[in-house]
Amino acid sequence: MQPTKEQSLWMYENMVVSRRFEEAIEKAYLEGKTPAFNMANGPIPGEMHLSNGQEPVAVGVCAHLNADDIVTATHRPHHQAIAKGVDLKRMAAEIFGKSTGLSGGRGGHMHLIDPAVNFSCSGIIGESCGPACGAALSRTIQNKPGVAVAFLGEGAANQGAFHEALNLAGTWKLPVVFVIEDNSWGISVPKAEATAVIRNDVRAAGYGMPGHYVPGNDPHAIFDVAGEAIARARKGEGPTLIEAETYRLAGHFMGDAEQYRPKGEKDALFAKDPIPKMRERLLAEGCTATELDEIEQRADSLVADAITFARESDYAPESDALTAVFV
Amino acid sequence: MLDQPTNERRLTIARAMAEAMQQEMQRDPRVFVMGEDIAGFGGIFGNTRGLFEKFGKERVRDTPISETGFISAAVGAAMDGMRPVVELMFVDFFGVCFDAIYNQMAKNAYFSGGNASVPMVLMTSTGGGYSDAGQHSQCLYGTFAHLPGMKVVSPSNAYDAKGLMTAAIRDDNPVVYMYHKQLQGMGWLGTEPGATLNTPQEGYTVEIGKAKVVRAGSDVTLVGLAMGVHNALKAADKLAEEGVNAEVIDLVSLVPLDRETVINSVAKTGRLIVIDEDYHSYGVSGEIIATVTEHDVSKLKASPARVTFPDVPIPYAKHMEQFCLPNPDKIIAAYRKM
Ligand SMILES: Cc1ncc(C[n+]2csc(CCOP(=O)(O)OP(=O)(O)O)c2C)c(N)n1
Ligand SMILES: [Mg+2]
Q: Which atom of ligand 1 is nearest to B36's Cα?
């Protein structure tokens, strides 16, 4: 399955938006955290997990989804949220802890929930899988269209929740697709030292569903495999497990000294940065530089507007902390 | 405070924990450590630094992100004669593995009529205050202390941290060792300087189940643990400026709970304020107050008070979280209302 030109450009644009967004977040995050790095300080306190380098998986999958479809995501959710169409301004405002944020500042960067586009995420590893099954089940029971996609990291594929959810999906033939972003690290632990198999796609066999491995952090290849899987789910033919190779260009979280990385790994990953690679590919396929420049400019202004919106928004009254526990 | 004598060894809680584990591993070949990022990385909160370099990957094991798997594996290893120390990186993650903890680790001694033992330590980080939001900032002291069969401790300083870890490893029972992130001495998430203390090099134990009167006073008893102790001490300093003498008790251990030390103090002061960063209801604060009122309510000159985290998930935004957290001013306000 190959993307149309329009789909290719959509993927490119969302990758660029995601990258620019994270660059802006990174800059804002570091404000107030120098010279001594203290996570508690600055306009964006707390942990920050950047997803730069991992954009291809999010766009290759979400290119096949519409707002009605469900995505459950991870502790590293920005690229997935952007590709799913979460409102960028409200997402930025949430990360800045403002009243205009998705939850008014209650949730923060690991807890982005946007019912308008059926997006949610959790900071607990592996916990994207079960809710995706439930959403898929709900659509089946209600006889409503829509598929669910659960994103997770390769480290999460060792969590009980992942295996239980896959069995559920396989047994009930649910319209769900599990997408593992294999960035080869779970914080400081390499995949190979924590996983009994080399590639997680083989685990699909244990749960009666097809499994695919997509090498190369290549948005087109991911688009292809995810397209088949999502079409299959839409036709009621059941779940699929996909593991896609990807690159974590940043540390696990901001402030991570990354001493566990082998020498030269980061340079090698940056040399394979998927965004310039995709630009080259699009140019080779006949897109014009002007066309792509325009996309990049649009991304820049979208991100700039979102960050401005976030900065200029007010904080909610502190006592709002006590509301919204129940609806 | 800044001019420390050179012969003192001021350690952070993180280093004190690591030193206790290292010494116990040297003494006892049955002791081994496992958890996520505890080997080469040295633990996200620095508490296993140096162990991997010293003992290698046989005894210092990075695990997959499989808490049910490796914590119940620790139960099995402990029952088979080993002394595992396992780490649950954040206490908030107990949700994915609690069966291993409260149905197995905590109950197998009882189910065997005392014929089997589960000598293991489950160490886990607690606490917020640095905007890590609702799945990475909880304390859950009451949750663990509520369930029978496991000892529960939480140090407020490095001296106790080392002695409690040593005692926990030597204990024949399962011990949940809860360390507060903002007391760890990790600059990157802010740290309470009062937790870094002179800590002897040689191994020693701090008794599990014994509270400490860390400041003597006659007008009001402030009871807390971990970060709560530091908030209480700061409040006591401020109250002293007004001529109010607060006694501060560091519980150190929740299970067993040293009820006597609290009761004796309130008998003297007649006033009780409990400081607990855990949720308000159904927790440590209620237990302490019940302990005192059940014993002899006539000793109280005023209704007891508690300064706790309200019954809401921990909010991300800094101003909201700070609004909810206990602090010295809230303790003083509670005293004024008495
Ligand atoms: C149940 C649980 N255990 C541990 C953690 C701590 N933790 C946060 S991210 C992470 C690594 C996750 O690795 P992976 O799933 O590969 O995702 P990545 O960070 O690489 O995107 C760990 C161990 C957690 N959040 N939840
Ligand atoms: Mg990973």
A: 23
Token pair belonging to A129: 């899988």
For residues B280 and B99, is the Cβ–Cβ distance under 8 A?
A: no
Give the largest Cα separation in chain A, rounded: 57
Assigned token pair, B89: 């990186």
Q: In this complex, is the C-beta atom of A31 within 8 Å of any C-beta atom belonging to chain B?
A: no
What confidence tier does B5 reach under pLDDT thresholds 50, 70, 90? very low
Q: pLDDT at residue B1 above 60?
A: no
Whether A86 maps to a domain, the answer reads: yes
Going by CA atoms, what residue is nearest to atom 20 of ligand 1? A186
Question: Is the ipTM of this structure higher than 0.95?
Answer: yes
Cβ-based burial of A291 (10 A; exposed 0-12, middle 13-18, buried ≥19)? middle
Look up the CATH number of the domain holding residue A90.
Answer: 3.40.50.970
Q: What is the pLDDT of residue B7?
A: 58
End-to-end CA distance of chain A: 43
Output the CA A156–ligand 1 centroid distance in Å: 7
Question: What is the pLDDT averaged over residues A261-272?
Answer: 97
Q: Start-end ranges of CATH 3.40.50.920 in chain B?
A: 212-337
Q: What pTM was computed for the model? A: 0.97
Bridge partners, A176 (sequence order): A148
